[in-house]
User: What shape does this take?
Amino acid sequence: MTEEQRVEAIRQKREMEELLQSPGWKMLVSAANAQVKYRTDTIMLDPELDGPKAKYMAGEVAGIRTLLSIPEGLLEVSDAVIKAAMQQDEEEKGE
Assistant: This one.
């Protein structure tokens, strides 16, 4: 692992942690969850909703949920890279 990759993982981790704690992110999550609820309720409760439109709305729900999961996913990847870098350092010291 290069030093550049380590630095990038640390930077990405810090930025994702800051994003997840920011008031703007919390506001976005609240608005997105309201959109998910609206679409889910519409799919479940509207007996006249046709197949293609229901599938389209289900796709929107999946997309919104995917978007909301990206920061956590990037944080997990950054943690894994940092952990691997630390293990690599330990192995190099032991040689």
Summary: Helices lie at 3-21, 23-45, 51-94. The chain has three helices and no strands. The chain has a mean pLDDT of 93. The radius of gyration is 20 Å.
